[in-house]
């Protein structure tokens, strides 16, 4: 796993910022360190792949990076092998994972990222599929993937867009914490609640919490604790 | 379908009321009309089946109804055939549906409800599984059912615990309306957004909105409209 080079964003949008703007320094650090000039974008979490790829292109082209959509490639396997960096965008996690299974892209992506060290950027659904499984997505299950097991680039689960539920709410639906705790109760696996504006940077066997907010770790024993900005998250990788 | 006799609740809990209390009149109307004295409760959406069955028993025993848990029966098929009424409780919709598939209970329940006219009460997850599919649940996918297709006691989808997202929120996760609209965009099927405290009563080919709040119908053409209390919903059954 020493080749692993990941940036897993909670979200692409953060209140008060333009699209991906809050993550610019994190993206540029990663891309510069790896001499990335062109990013291969995986747009399958949204319906309009051209429009989605254009959105990402418009956001990061001004920073000096070209963006190509994987959906435009005749030979997707070759496109992945040629990729300088892979960016999997957010949207619906179920649609994204089902498409990755349908197009048989899970193993090719895993190989590039884990064996060849190709940088992987995920946002929201793209972060969910980078983890062990999509069991902790917030999305509505509008599509049925053959399994919820995902890329497993890291051995724990993430809940993107994590937030505490308003304690004054009169709504009786389950809170986010109740939902995540339910996953932990069934699976005995840790979940990192990643607030908007934060991300996880993984370099080989080292993982770090980036961004200005804390993250909430739901431990496999049912407890939970807050992890502060720049916290060392490497212990979450050691379950491998 | 003339035998069909359903009460589909958005939730068992409503702010300011005890468990199931808001639905007492609706439940009693149904049970009295069908001479129900004992309810067969299906507790699989939560982890502790005994505790969950006791919760429901404590709620409705004072009204004069006995409650038995399906999980206590050696022969579940016989228990369903003997049932005076079937009540499927809420919890996690994915866990519930996976269990119904594992125990091969979908067809036996369908047969009792659609062919023999056994009354069916569902709440939250129990309402989701009563519809065509669980694609419009709010729950976290903590378990992977072999399919999202469900009992299809009605041919449309319901979103229980429906609520509008606070328009002043700075959170960038998708709103409930965006999630439901995404389902409609992929499937071109209508979804009834059922607010807490409301329910759908189905008698044969007639369906009615019960409760004191309106419901939001997401139409298969992408539009939406509000339906007022006591609205005739029979048109939603005519897709059969």
From TrEMBL, chains A, B:
InterPro entries: Class_I_gatase-like, Peptidase_S51. Signal peptide: none annotated. Its main location: cytoplasm. Transmembrane segments: none annotated. It catalyses: Dipeptidase E catalyzes the hydrolysis of dipeptides Asp-|-Xaa. It does not act on peptides with N-terminal Glu, Asn or Gln, nor does it cleave isoaspartyl peptides. Its EC number is 3.4.13.21. One of its GO terms (cellular component) is cytoplasm. It is found in: Cytoplasm. One of its GO terms (biological process) is proteolysis. Keywords: Cytoplasm, Dipeptidase, Hydrolase, Protease, Serine protease. It holds the Pfam family Peptidase_S51. GO terms for molecular function: dipeptidase activity; serine-type peptidase activity. Hydrolyzes dipeptides containing N-terminal aspartate residues. Belongs to the peptidase S51 family. This is dipeptidase E. It comes from Drosophila madeirensis. The lineage of its organism: Eukaryota, Metazoa, Ecdysozoa, Arthropoda, Hexapoda.
């Amino acid at each position: 796993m020493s080749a692993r080079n990941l940036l897993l964003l909670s979200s692409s949008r953060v209140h008060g910022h333009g699209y991906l703007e809050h993550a610019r320094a994190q993206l540029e650090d990663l891309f510069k360190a790896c001499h990335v000039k062109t990013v291969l974008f995986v747009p399958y979490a949204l319906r309009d792949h051209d429009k989605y790829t254009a959105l990402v292109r418009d956001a990061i082209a001004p920073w000096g990076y070209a963006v190509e959509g994987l959906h435009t490639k005749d030979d997707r396997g070759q496109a992945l092998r040629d990729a300088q960096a892979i960016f999997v965008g957010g949207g619906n996690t179920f649609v994204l994972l089902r498409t990755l299974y349908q197009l048989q892209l899970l193993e090719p992506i895993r190989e590039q990222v884990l064996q060849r060290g190709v940088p992987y950027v995920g946002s929201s659904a793209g972060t969910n599929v980078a983890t062990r499984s999509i069991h902790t997505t917030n999305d509505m299950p509008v599509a049925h993937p053959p399994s919820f097991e995902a890329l497993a680039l890291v051995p724990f689960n993430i809940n993107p867009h994590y937030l505490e539920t308003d304690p004054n709410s009169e709504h009786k639906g389950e809170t986010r914490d109740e939902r995540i705790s339910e996953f932990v109760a069934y699976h005995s696996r840790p979940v990192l609640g990643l607030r908007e504006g934060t991300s996880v940077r993984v370099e080989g066997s080292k993982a770090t919490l980036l961004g200005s907010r804390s993250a909430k770790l739901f431990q496999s024993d049912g407890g939970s604790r807050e992890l502060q900005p720049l916290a060392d998250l490497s212990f979450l990788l050691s379950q491998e």
